[in-house]
Design brief:
By secondary structure, the protein is of the alpha/beta class. Helix content is 14%, strand content 30%. It binds acetyl coenzyme *A (ACO). It comes from Siminovitchia sediminis.
């Protein structure tokens, strides 16, 4: 599978190694607006994001992945490109465990040493980051980021664009609102409303976001 990565920052380094770890994965391009010229550098094509359509003409069956950790930026690029959902790859690291009954949306990435248990649903363009756990019957929407070592216990619901900080724990049945930010190390024992930041043990709302988010 030929893959073009969009985004050339820190998160993209991990995605690049993930692509290399997949037997059928072949990374052919990295698009980022920091590249002003469309050119071949060593074994990789680099160029601005606007060249994505041109790449599709060059490589039949090419898949994309948005390799950017910031949820609103991933959404902005997906909205801008207007590609059909199946143009995006679903990437799973070979050391991850994904239940056969779990559903994963296009554009989502499942990093090393994660566990995704039965009857979970994960939306599009979501990141399940290193060593995190998504327990049975959980529902994770699109553009979510589950940071390294976070634990979602059974039947948890995560709204669109929410970011669960590193090492956070969410107890069974709790709901996290759209575009909420859960601080690193938080323990969430009550549902959290949309568009706010919640921190601590137990997690409490610390900030309510303005329209443009954090
Ligand atoms: C591979 C990767 O890197 S993936 C990315 C993983 N990223 C993360 O896990 C990031 C998690 N981010 C955090 O925890 C951040 O501290 C946030 C988002 C919760 C808050 O950030 P900001 O909005 O900038 O808030 P700020 O730093 O101003 O802190 C606001 C208050 O919350 C407190 N606070 C911030 N983070 C936490 C936290 N994780 N736990 C407890 N309290 C916290 C601060 O002490 C401060 O308290 P005060 O008002 O009493 O002084």
């Amino acid at each position: 599978m030929k893959i073009a990565m969009i985004g050339g920052g820190g998160h993209s380094k991990v995605i690049r190694e993930l692509i290399h770890s997949i037997k059928e994965g072949e990374m052919i391009a990295c698009l980022d607006d920091k590249y002003h010229v469309f050119q071949k550098r060593k074994d990789l094509i680099c160029g601005p994001i606007e060249k994505a359509r041109y790449l599709i003409q060059m490589y039949e069956g090419l898949k994309f992945v948005i390799a950017i950790g910031h949820n609103k930026t991933r959404k902005r690029i997906v909205d801008q490109l207007q590609f059909p959902a199946h143009y995006y790859a679903i990437l799973k690291h070979p050391t991850s465990w994904v239940s056969p009954s779990a559903e994963i949306g296009y554009g989502s990435v499942i990093m090393a040493h994660t566990v995704i248990n039965p009857d979970t649903k994960i939306g599009e363009h979501t990141i399940i980051n290193t060593k995190s756990v998504v327990e049975h019957d959980s529902r994770i929407s699109q553009y979510v980021h589950i940071s390294p070592n976070a634990t979602l216990t059974g039947g948890v619901k995560i709204g669109e664009g929410a970011h669960i900080g590193a090492g956070a724990t969410i107890i069974p049945g709790v709901k996290i609102g759209k575009w909420a930010m859960i601080g690193a190390g938080a323990t969430v024992i009550h549902s959290i409303p949309p568009d706010c930041t919640a921190v601590g043990v137990p997690a409490k709302v610390k900030k309510v976001h303005m329209k443009e988010g954090v």
